[in-house]
Write a structure and sequence with these properties.
2 strands, about 140 residues, single chain
Amino acid sequence: AARNPLLKAALGAAVRIWFEASRSLQDLCRGRSIYYLHVLQPTLHDTGSKPLDPTEITDVPKNLDYINGVQALYPRMKQAGEELRALGVNFYDASMAFADVKAPVYYDACHFKGQGNEIVAARIAEAFLRTLPAADSSASKNAPR
């Protein structure tokens, strides 16, 4: 897919926009004393991210643009996420949250139900608590309520 120079440039631009938007959002939140955590969520078509259940394969519409987009962009986004983290952005890659889950959790290509929501929520909560800065009593006086 990325052999086409225009497509390669478009994919690079998409990841760069995603990357810069995350940096900007963290800076905006920091300026308002709001904690920011950027989470890359799991998606059905991220190769190797989940052993797919037959219902997940047959019940989800086949949108080739979406599938090709995930397969072209997710590896780049994961790498860019590491760069975000190196720059101090609170980034958590939850894309492999279902790597060991055999039960169906997706009801479409990027939304989950039941156990899937519980798994992702627990992972996000853990990442949030792990990266949340310690409370500063002087800063909390000026924090928004």
